[in-house]
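Figure S7 source data.
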Amino acid sequence: MVSEIINYPYSIWLLYLLIFMEKGEKMQKIILRVLTILTIGLNFLFGDITGNVFRDFPIDGNITSDYAVQQDNEPGIEGITVKGIDENGNEVTVSTSSDGSYILTGLNGYVRVEFSGWPSYLEESPDENRLNSSIRFVNDGDTNINLALHNPDDFSSTANPEIITPVMINGATEVGSQSGSERALVLWNYQDTTDLNYTVLATKQEVGNLWGIAYNKLTKNVYAGAILKRHTGLLDSDDDGYGDIGVIYRINVKTGEKSLFYRFPNDDVGLVENDENRNLPNDTGPSADPYSFSKVGNIGLGDIEISSDSKTLYVVNIYNKKLYSINIEDANLINSILLPNECSEQNDSRPFALKYNDGSLYVGVTCVAYESKQRDDLVSHIYRFSPDNETFEKVISVDLNYTKGRVYQEYTTGKNVGTEFNPWIETWGDLYIAKSTGGDPGLYSLFTSFKPFT
Ligand SMILES: [Ca+2]
Ligand SMILES: [Ca+2]
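Tokens for the predicted calcium ion complex:
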């Protein structure tokens, strides 16, 4: 009540004070009731317009959120311009505060409220009551004049959407073999974590070993890039004796149709022997695979991403350390740009990660200390890429020389193993040979050397 009283026009204040001076308690109550009624009426004439601008997300925990309604997990948006123009032509312009709220004061009667100045990746949210518009016609004194904004890339009509992921299983890609018939790309529902009720989109004999995934929501095509991993095979479709590591496949989720979308020439991605030369078995049993040991993480492709408008596929090339842009429509190369390299030795840079988020493309580059062999040189960098002027802006750097939790403890020595990241190595003999966590140490020796990769 006190806060409301403060907002009373001056004349009402005087009246209120006079009543209190009379000290007539019964009369006070009557007058307060009258004042309350007056307040409601006067708010209509002299009140403020208030509201909130916030970000809509499709999911709150495990339940679907309502669009145009602010749930607990949905933050306010700072810095949105709110302009009010009343029926007398008075104008007031404010900017939303850090919690997304705003107040328009000094307007009267009917007011046109205009919201503007939000980032281009956000749009007005759908609203079943059709009230969530950036232009509103309200009365002075109205509250909860809110604006909900959302990123269409985030949209989901369900809390249990389909997800697609590669699966890496030991063995060669030989057509008709046990390992070749294994799954390489699967689709299932996000919340189905126990029943393994998945759909196989592609097998190893069709696509080899995959990592990078990008999805075109307009055409329902999933794009998947090959990657070199020890013990798991790659196709050799051109039969040149080398595994196909520069390939990106296009697979339609609805029709199952598969095709090669893009292939980097061997010179651009590096070479690794094919399954036969790597002596990979035609089943899922163990293999030595010595040829690929020094090449994992040094050749081939990193992650791939698709732009919000579904027109451009971005690809990280680990081998030549470039970011590629490929036209989704005709699979023509748009351009390639050398990635930033801030490592103490140029050969220590390993680009890999890629993520398109809220209208920006982010790329991860790790300094792996291959040349320097100094743990203090281990650093992870994240850059934001601007396609318009083809520049990179550093967002964050994280030193990776900190002590982390152990992976396990040696049985015989009690030594904690895996408490730090190590400089990059390419020779088997440089691995740390840890003793077993139990049983015969000789029989169960573990070979470890944890490498950071962003
Ligand atoms: Ca919501
Ligand atoms: Ca080949």
